[in-house]
């Protein structure tokens, strides 16, 4: 029997941003801790990494965002109190995050861009780690599982593999956009070969409507590429530019087109949709929310 390939041992979650689109809430609360129903976005991402087979989560934080990592630390006082009161369901919820995956903090001291944030993890990798996964916590990609599909593609085709979603032209300029071609021998039509990638192009310059959806399996060669790219879109060191450089130098890159749901937790509108979407599926809040929404929509 063939075993399903795991994603790389280390999963990287860049969480050093200021969360400006979420002010004033993010003045004191990191956006990664805002609850999607009752669970912080960062815990959902940790769950996805753990399910994919990662063994440790490196969270890239900035000074003042310690709370993001603290969410994964056991709170024995709180646990003791809940235990004494016989609150087993709450206790299970509190214990979940610390038991998901080993979490380490890596500090990015200057906000120099996503590429720079990812590069901060390189000194913490072991010599035998030939790849990493990167999960952007703004992107909620459902149902969980695309990383496993990406790992299968990497096992078969080598190089690096990213996740793509189709985005309408009028919104494409908010994304990293792929120049793609069909893989002639692909058994999965949603696997495409990438010939180039550009960060936040103008709609008329976008090479396709396939956009990067915040999930990456990157060969270790990415660190060398990040060192060699200069500042890109927004004056930042872009991960997209490093990937484009790797492609230009012959490194194989493929995408898996995700056909499920993707929510953007990084802005209030997308975050609300995610919360409603997840709440509707829950037994505790779903039925009441649905009834209220139906009534509210007729108003
Ligand atoms: C980042 C990446 C971009 C990607 C997007 C997905 O952009 O740079 O390539 O398409 O995430 O959410 P950001 O949204 O952080 O500006």
TrEMBL record:
Entry keywords, A to Z: Nucleotidyltransferase, Transferase
Reaction equations catalysed: alpha-D-glucose 1-phosphate + UTP + H(+) = UDP-alpha-D-glucose + diphosphate
This enzyme's EC code(s): 2.7.7.9
Residues in Nucleotidyl transferase domain copies: 11-278
Recorded GO MF terms: nucleotidyltransferase activity
EC class (word): transferase
Family: Belongs to the UDPGP type 2 family.
Name of the protein in its database record: UTP--glucose-1-phosphate uridylyltransferase
Organism per entry: Tsukamurella soli
Upper classification of the organism: Bacteria, Bacillati, Actinomycetota, Actinomycetes, Mycobacteriales
């Amino acid at each position: 029997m063939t075993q399903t390939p795991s994603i790389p041992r280390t999963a990287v979650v860049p969480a050093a941003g200021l969360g400006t689109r979420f002010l004033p809430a993010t003045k004191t609360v990191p956006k990664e801790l805002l609850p999607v129903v009752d669970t912080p976005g960062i815990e959902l991402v940790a769950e996805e990494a753990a399910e994919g087979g990662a063994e440790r989560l490196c969270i890239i934080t900035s000074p003042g965002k310690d709370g993001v990592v603290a969410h994964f630390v056991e709170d024995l006082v709180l646990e003791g109190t809940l235990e004494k009161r016989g609150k087993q369901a709450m206790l299970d919820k509190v214990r979940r995050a610390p038991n998901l995956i080993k979490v380490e903090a890596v500090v990015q001291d200057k906000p120099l861009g996503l590429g720079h944030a990812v590069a901060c993890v390189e000194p913490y990798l072991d010599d035998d780690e030939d790849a990493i996964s990167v999960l952007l916590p703004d992107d909620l990609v459902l149902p969980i599982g695309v990383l496993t599909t990406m790992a299968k593609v990497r096992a078969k085709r080598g190089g690096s593999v990213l996740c793509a979603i189709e985005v309408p032209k009028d919104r494409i300029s908010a994304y990293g956009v792929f120049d793609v071609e069909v893989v002639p021998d692909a058994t999965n039509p949603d696997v495409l070969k990438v010939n180039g990638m550009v960060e936040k192009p103008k709609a008329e310059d976008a090479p396709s409507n396939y956009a990067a959806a915040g999930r990456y399996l990157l060969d270790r060669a990415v660190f060398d590429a990040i060192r060699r790219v200069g500042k890109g879109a927004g004056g930042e060191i872009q991960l997209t530019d490093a990937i484009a450089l790797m492609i230009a130098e012959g490194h194989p890159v493929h995408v898996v087109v995700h056909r499920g749901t993707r929510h953007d937790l990084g802005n209030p509108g997308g975050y609300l949709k995610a919360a409603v979407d997840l709440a509707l599926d829950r037994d505790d809040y779903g039925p009441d929310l649905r009834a209220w929404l139906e009534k509210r929509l007729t108003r």
